[in-house]
Amino acid sequence: MPAAARFAGEGRLTWWGFTVYDARLWVAPEFTSRQLARHAFALELTYLRNLRADDIVRTTLEEMRRTADIPDDTAARWAAQLRPLLRDVKTGDRIAAVNRPGRGAAFFVNGKTTGDIADPQFAQRFFAIWLAPTTSEPGLRAALLGDTVQ
Q1: Which of 14, 18, 112, 150 is the most buried (most CB within 10 A)?
Q2: How far, in Å, CA of 12 to CA of 4, rounded?
Q3: Rounded Cα–Cα distance for residues 13 and 30 (Å)
Q4: Is residue 1 one of the residues assigned to a domain?
């Protein structure tokens, strides 16, 4: 992220009455929600419960496929690429992802780089989980995007 990145917003994901994580979004100065793929931004999730990495990967791919038609072979490839970048999480652990326009997404666990997926289509579908108008959590999207919505 550029040094001039600014905090855009934050929100909490609650699923069936259980708090799952707090999400925060930092964006580049020129960021607009209309053209997500063109901008650098960082999304950080601070987990409020223990979860297995395999469950995080499975849910991530389910949500990605909910927002777009993704062929089975592509979903399997993305799951295989994502799994080594994540860890089992405990309450308080943080997973962050940075959109790298035209290049893909970089991942961090508790501030340490775990790797990246060099596929812009993956990045677009991954961040759509939280930031696309088709998200399953429109309230969280609005809280994250704050005044960047256009």
Answers
A1: 14
A2: 25
A3: 27
A4: no
- Look up residue 134 and give its amino acid: T
Residue of 127, 13, 9, 131 lying closest to 60 (CA atoms)? 127
* Domains of the chain: total: 1
SS3 content of the chain, % helix, strand, coil (to 5): 40, 30, 30
Strand, helix or coil at 25? Answer: strand
Contacts of 17 by beta carbon, 8 Å cutoff, 6+ apart: none
Domain that holds residue 58: 6-148
Q: What are phi and psi of 52, to 5 degrees?
A: -80, 145
Q: Is residue 63 part of a domain?
A: yes
**68 DSSP assignment:** S
